[in-house]
Structures are given as structure tokens and as C-alpha cells.
Amino acid sequence: MTEDELFITAILNCSRSELYTRPVQLNDEQNEQFEVMKWRRAAGEPVQYICGFTEFMGHRMEVGPGVLVPRPETEVLVDAVLQTFKAEGQGAPFMLDIGTGSGCIPISLLKEVPGARAVGLDVSPDALGYARRNASLNGVSDRLEFIERDVFWYMDETRHRFDAVITNPPYIPTFQLGGLPVDVRREPELALDGGPDGLHFYRFIVPTAWRVLKGGGLIALEFGDGQRKELENLLAITGGWDKIQVLKDNAGRNRVIIARKMKGPENG
């Protein structure tokens, strides 16, 4: 679908198939809206911000300024978690999503696993505003709690023990931010900047995730180009992990790493 077609479906609130199966005639007000959308796009605004929504795992998610746009690569992360749950017959997992943004990860998981519950953690009130609306839009608000808290504080404070810790944290090295496409640079830097080498958040999340996971619990991490080896080393240095797997995205790039917290006498 072209960008112009996306704009028209947003204006008419119709699906792509409806766009092709019925005559399209915009009135004067709609034509003016269409021209404004094209002007905003020419100025470098993300298409998803202009439309006000995107699709993730087949589910509609509202997005706009102040929240990261969900990307197809993150669907690999969600699918890896889903396949693990299904393979193990785990029907009621309790999950933590760190840096939840629009809420697309836990919402998609809860839609597919009706017995699951989740906590979505983010420091941004703007992002959490979208996340709460998306949870309501997708009918999972009763099983999903959003918390506005810095991950560095939350992981030390929480008394919860989770079956899975999932995260797509900021992983772009700071020095690369200026070279990102114009529309990506319109997204919140807070959700992109992973520190000098892009690994700032992983160095905290991996060891603290081990503490908040139940024995046998799953950690699932999305990561960027060239970061696989460093993350495998981090898991090895932290210790207590096994069944480590690395998965590729649709472009053939290493994108997701999952591992299990080893079971022991003290953690089940």
C-alpha cells in the first residue's frame, strides 16, 4: 500500500480491501485533510503519526508524537515468546514488558494468550497514554497494568516474580542518532538512545531480570545490528542462564535473543 493510500484509508476509516472494492470520492474537507497529510509527510513526519495508528501483529495500535512507532522486527520478539509459551503449554504466564511504549508487545501477547497477565513499564507519561488507550481498544485492560517508573528503580523495588521478562529497549548507539532517517528522528530520543555502544540498558536489565524471574522463567530481548556477541557475553558473565537462542528477523539479521533462568533449589 502506498503512503497516499494509507492516508486515504485513515481519512475514510476503511480497510485496504474496502479502498479497492468501492469507488473513492473525497469531499472538499477530506481533500484538504489529504493535502495536509501529504504536507506533513514531506516535512519528515512519520506516516504512522500522520495516520494516528499502525498495525502490529494484526492489531491496531494508536501512535503519535511522544511514542515509538512499533516495527515489524519487534513482531519476531513477540512471536518467539508466543511459540515458547505454546510449546510448553503455558496458558497463564505473568509477564513484564520493560519500556512498553505503545504497549504493542504485552497487548499482542495477551490477545493470543487469554489466561496471561502483564505489567508494562515505561518512564514516559506520553507513551503510557497511548499504551492505556491501546489496551482498551484491544480489550485487554483488565489483564494489563501500566506503571510509570524508571526501570532502574522498579527492578529493585518490585516484589513480583514473573514467568517472562520481555524488552525492546533503546539500543541505537548515541553517535548514530544523527544519521537516522528524518522521520525516525521525529520519534522520542528517549526510546532510541542506548548509550555510547547501545548496550546501556541491557547491562542493567539482564542481571536484574534474573532476580525477578521465577525459576525456569524466560528473558526475551530485541537488539540491534552487531550486538549479538556482546549480549551472549553478558548472559555468560551474569550466569544462571541456559537454553539460549538467537533468532533472525525477516531481513536475515540477528534480532532477538531468548534464554531461560536456570532452575535451582532456591528458585524452583
Which tags fit this structure?
alpha/beta; 2 domains; 268 residues; Rossmann fold; single chain; globular; 10 helices; two-stranded antiparallel ribbon; seven-stranded mixed sheet; 9 strands
Write the layout of secondary structure elements.
Blueprint: H1 3-12, H2 16-21, H3 28-42, H4 47-51, E1 53-56, E2 59-62, H5 72-88, E3 94-98, H6 104-112, E4 117-122, H7 125-137, E5 144-148, H8 151-157, E6 162-167, H9 200-212, E7 213-222, H10 228-238, E8 241-248, E9 254-261
Parallel strand pairs: 3-4, 3-6, 4-5, 6-7
Antiparallel strand pairs: 1-2, 7-9, 8-9
Helix pairs in contact: 1-3, 5-6, 8-9, 9-10
Brief summary:
With 268 residues, the chain is an alpha/beta fold.
Beta-sheet strand percentage? 15-25%
> What's the name of the CATH homologous superfamily of the largest domain?
Vaccinia Virus protein VP39
Spatial shape: globular
Instruction: Count the domains.
Output: 2
Estimate the helix proportion, in percent.
25-40%
Q: At the third CATH level, what is the topology name of the largest domain? A: Rossmann fold
Provide the CATH architecture of the largest domain.
Answer: 3-Layer(aba) Sandwich
Low-confidence stretches: none
- Provide the residue-averaged pLDDT: 94
| Number of DSSP strand runs | 9
SSE-based structural type: alpha/beta
Secondary-structure element string: HHHHEEHEHEHEHEHEHEE
Rg, please? 20 Å
The major β-sheet equals: 7 strands, mixed
Distance between the first and last residues' Cα:
50 Å
Going across the biggest sheet, name each strand in turn: 5-4-3-6-7-9-8
